[in-house]
Amino acid sequence: MTNTIHIAYALDDAFLEYTCVSAVSLLANTKRNVCFHILESRLSDEGKEKLRLSSGNRRDVEWQFHHINQNEIGFSTHNVSITDETYYRLALPDICAKLDKVLYIDGDTIVNRDIAELYDTELDEYMAAAAYEDSPYSIDPIRRDILEFGEEDRYFQAGVLLINLKLCRSSNLYNNAVSCVIELRNKFIENGVYWMDDQDVLNYLLKGKIKYLPPKYNFCLYNRMGIIGDNFYCVREWAEAMNNFVILHNCGRSKPVIRGREAIWNPHYELYYKYKNISPVKDDKDIKRISEYKKSEASLESGIVLNSIDYINFNKFKTIEYACEVVKKEIGNRKLIIWGNTENVRLLIVMFAHAGLSVNGIVDGLVKNEGKRVFDHLIESPNFLYGKSKEYFVVTSMIQMQVFNRVRNVLSDYGYEDSDTYYVFEKSHHSLSDCVIKK
Fold it and tell me: Does 288 fall in a domain?
């Protein structure tokens, strides 16, 4: 095949459904020839056939299955929730010995645009390209110390990895990984830091040799929950990712499945089932699953509040999205100010930008928070708001109701009426409590 895009997945039968849906979505949005490289050690013949059937009517798609002997690979996760297949991407430079480049994608992804846009990224002298991991893992000082990170090094998410195979081969990536994995893992265990398996190995070996991709190329669903990192990406990049992601990554608990009787939080479940419906893994129960998601959405719209972490997580995006709609209607020509420094403020700023609203400043009543940076904003004292309700519209984001009541009293003293403010109240997603919005 000429002008072919080479894609790699690693999976067993347990990950077959997700991977089939991912492949179907990729092919539905990609025009060029595609060659899939499937890394497996225990994938059934039925699973292989379902992957082949994911090609649909396209004749410009090739499937190559690379069987790996687990006893010889040299890696094991020692983790019941992560399979050994996660390490197989480390062997891609040797498995795809005749290729110069391959795009590895985790199976729990949805490709929303033509993948050629990412595949054609120039790697130059970089060993790989990946998106920054925006989570607590990325800023953990102990993790950074174990990985021997310098000040400029950033922790990347290895679920989408454009690999410079030629350079990785010459650098002996696979053998270096085998040599360091046990010692590195032991350091994590000794320091009580959660071990991220191949992702930590890759971050250790590729530091300083990574080309960082915009978040739209690996938009992880936990970023709907909050944007936690150290301002690596700007508001515009996050807003673009939310508005028009190329790859959606349903990592961790966010996979669009029903657990027990409850729909696991996933605001893009319809996108998943859209592609599942045209895949070889569709089944008759999907209609019921979609119905469960719609019930969860209806419960928010009707004001029913459920005491559940999954409910809070599922609805956080919808809650803030609704807040954006109300603020757009009521702000007029005033400047938008956010009062608060909760875990939701970064997400609020991005989603306001996604809705076409620019945040003009962040304030907080705690002196210790003044001067802290949130994207391009430095948190200020709220004193400048006094007597300027015609100039500023204030959105408050508080975790505790009693804190909001104090802020509300201060704003009243400053001359603000309820129509000059909007209150987004979200309990911490680490606790079991209400998730409501109030005006």
Answer: no
Note whether 144 and 229 are same-domain residues. Answer: yes
Task: Give the domain-ending residue among 249, 264, 283.
Answer: 249
pLDDT at 315: 63
Q: What is the pTM of this model?
A: 0.88
The verdict on 133 and 212 lying in the same domain is yes
Structure confidence at residue 305 (pLDDT): 44
Q: What is the CATH number of the domain that holds 212?
A: 3.90.550.10
Residues 289-338 pLDDT 10s:
888 778 766 765 554 544 455 555 556 777 788 888 889 999 999 999 99
| Domain's final residue, options 234, 249, 264 | 249
pLDDT tens per residue across span 107-125 = 999 999 999 999 999 999 9
Residue 282 has pLDDT above 50, yes or no: yes
Long-range contacts (CB closer than 8 Å, 24 or more residues apart) made by 179-185 = 180/204, 180/205, 181/74, 181/75, 184/146
Tell whether 61 and 151 lie within a shared domain. Answer: yes
Q: Which domain holds residue 38?
A: 5-249
Q: How confident is the model at residue 267 (pLDDT cuts 50, 70, 90)?
A: confident
